[in-house]
Write a structure and sequence with these properties.
Layout: H1 3-7, E1 19-22, E2 27-32, E3 36-43, E4 51-52, E5 54-55, E6 61-66, E7 74-81, E8 86-89, E9 105-106, H2 118-123, E10 133-137, H3 139-142, H4 155-169, E11 173-176, E12 180-181, E13 194-198, H5 205-217, E14 221-226, E15 230-231, H6 252-255, E16 262-263, H7 269-285, E17 290-293, H8 297-300, H9 312-328, E18 333-336, E19 358-360, H10 362-372, H11 384-387, H12 389-392, E20 398-402, H13 414-417, H14 423-439, E21 443-447, H15 472-486, E22 499-501, E23 511-518, E24 521-528, E25 534-538, E26 542-547, E27 564-567, E28 570-575, E29 579-585
Length: about 575
């Protein structure tokens, strides 16, 4: 490794030098701890005795070559600080860790698994004009394994269950909640201790590679939830790694996050190398097809608060990381979970932007869900909540998210968010809501369980309620995904002429209609969010692709009933209350 480039913050593959690296006859351990007085390696290979690492002058680099260490063995670093304190740490660049509550790193040979997905990797694109339908999931609670004491399937076992399910629904990608190692199950992976270690809850690095390889052979991309803002406070992790605040801020006013974790100090160039190398690691070594970066607002503003101003160091880190990742992985998806109005999130770096491919449209999510929670008689007043999204949509390449955050902590499941107490109405409203989502411009993300129409919140300690599987709502959602996948007009989200609102009169204030067009295909979506039926005029012959009120979906309209009527050569579409349709104009 070019050590000067490391100190300049330019390294993207520091993990190829740091960590525990296996050769034919030995393992070389390397770490960076500039302020420590002494570091030893203890592990299964030396009967947990202390083998002293050798410092490289005053550079902060420490190294040990062991002929006894072997892949699969546990180890940790014992760090002697300058102030006399001693703390055992896992390897910051370790490639695997033991299952919690254990905290040792595991010597791992990254070449153990060989990918066979060359064709996928060569054909992969960022999908700006293609379908992106993401299934967000928490592997430990999607389905529970009765043969495992914790209820977990291994990564490769999960592949055989998950892939047919994703294909059935027409999902293009699966996004995993953070898989980097973490001590507390309830953090869902958002408070990491092992940024280069796939969590051992579900198996080994080789098993994770096998899962991604199988996904690629099935035509499905894999996205990793990546956490570049903060880390867990556990003493064996990054906290005060060399006896000083090496990775975190020295002052708690900015060093401690709202989640009780430590914020990375991105102004340190060695920390930048650590994080951008972790990002590159998942894309390079595991063939992930993209990274969804968590809490980007905290990388733009101090503590994510615009009133505190832009944090120039973190913003520059973000630009440099995204630019470097795109140079190395031009077809990988970089997705920002960002709630701010900061401009240029998806604008190229060369044009002054931050270089993401997509930005979560959290404004669309909040406005639309609030609208659906509003009593029908008040929805005409709130019509602007649905119209507003297309006012700002051209500013960024947006992705429409209904993530895990919307179905926890008392927020209720998506179906339960719908207005009213009548369950039949709630499901009807939910079907119309999801049709609106998939017909609206922007790539799609839905958290597991939404497709089933669950009425209970997500619980990371229990599996989804699969009694809903193959029910009417599940049938509807699968059909909706397949229709989305089949029609290019629904994919050309960022073309200026792709979307047009249709004019409406005062009698249809709770009815929304718009067209989506590309390359000769023109679709029409009509949504009736009122509690009264309506007749909507159609200006040209059209084929009905999907009706949310079909009986197979739990509605009352028969599938062979096209729901059209004619009056003086005019076509009218009959829409029951809380329903929507998607039509294709006849050429």
């Amino acid at each position: 490794m070019d050590k000067q480039a490391f100190f300049d913050g330019k390294i993207f593959n520091a993990y190829r030098w740091f960590g525990a690296h296996v050769s034919d006859r030995s393992v070389i351990f390397r770490t960076f701890a500039p302020n420590s007085a002494k570091i030893t390696v203890t592990g299964a290979f030396n009967d947990w005795q202390e083998d002293a690492m050798i410092p490289d002058g005053r550079s902060g680099f420490w190294e040990l070559k062991s002929a006894e260490a072997k892949p699969g063995q546990l180890y940790k670093y014992r760090v002697y600080a300058g102030d006399g304190t001693v703390q055992d740490h896992c390897d910051p660049y370790g490639f695997a860790m033991e299952l919690r509550p254990g905290c040792c790193s595991i010597v791992t040979d990254l070449s153990e698994y060989t990918f066979t997905d060359d064709a996928w990797m060569a054909a992969r694109t960022a999908s700006h004009d293609g379908p992106v339908n993401i299934y967000e999931m928490h592997p430990g609670s999607w389905k529970r394994n009765p043969k495992d004491e914790n209820g977990w399937y291994t990564y490769d076992e999960l592949a055989d269950l998950l892939i047919p399910y994703l294909r059935e629904h027409g999902f293009t990608h699966v996004e995993f909640l953070p898989l980097s190692e973490h001590p507390f199950d309830g953090s869902w992976g958002y408070q990491n201790t092992g940024f280069f270690a796939p969590t051992s809850r579900y198996g080994t690095p080789a098993q994770l590679k096998m899962l991604i390889d199988k996904l690629h052979h099935a035509g499905i991309g894999a996205i990793m939830d990546f956490v570049p803002v903060h880390f867990a406070v556990d003493g064996y992790g990054l906290a005060r790694y060399d006896g000083t605040t090496l990775y975190e801020y020295p002052h708690p006013a900015v060093g401690e996050s709202e989640w009780g974790s430590y914020n990375f100090i991105h102004s340190r160039r060695e920390v930048r190398c650590f994080l951008q190398s972790a990002a590159d690691y998942w894309l390079t070594e595991f063939h992930f097809d993209g990274l969804r970066m968590d809490a980007v607002s905290r990388l733009i503003y101090w503590q994510g608060d615009p009133a505190r101003g832009v944090n120039g160091d973190t913003l520059q880190f973000l630009r440099n990381m995204n630019e470097g990742l795109k140079q190395r992985h031009p077809t990988a998806l970089l997705i920002a979970e960002d709630s701010t109005a900061y401009p240029g999130i998806t604008k190229p770096i060369q044009e002054g932007g931050l270089g993401f491919d997509y930005k979560w449209d959290l404004g669309w999510m909040h406005d639309t869900l609030e609208y659906m929670q509003t009593p029908p008689e008040e929805r005409p007043r709130d019509r602007g909540k649905l119209l507003f999204s297309m006012e700002y949509f051209p500013n960024e390449r947006y992705l429409l998210p209904l993530s895990h955050d919307e179905v926890v902590h008392g927020k209720a499941a998506i179906v339960q968010k719908m207005y009213g107490s009548d369950l039949e109405d709630k499901y009807a409203e939910a079907r119309a809501f999801y049709l609106y989502m998939f017909a609206h411009p922007g790539k799609k993300l839905n958290f597991m369980g939404g497709e089933l129409g669950l009425r209970t919140e997500w619980d990371e300690a229990a599996e989804l309620d699969w009694s809903y599987e193959h029910g009417p709502f599940h049938t509807f959602f699968a059909a909706l995904c397949q229709v989305y996948r089949a029609h290019p007009a629904l994919h050309a989200d960022y073309r200026a002429d792709n979307f047009v609102w249709l004019p409406q009169d005062e009698q249809t204030e709770s009815v929304f209609a718009f067209t989506r067009s590309v390359d000769g295909e023109r679709l029409l979506a009509v949504l009736n969010f009122s509690d009264e039926p309506c007749d909507f005029p159609i200006d040209a012959p059209a084929t009905l692709l999907l009706h949310t009120d079909w009986t197979a979906f739990g509605g009352a309209s028969k599938e062979n009933d096209r729901s059209f009527s004619a009056d003086e050569d005019k076509l009218f579409l009959h829409l029951p209350k809380f329903s929507g349709v998607l039509l294709q104009y006849v050429k």
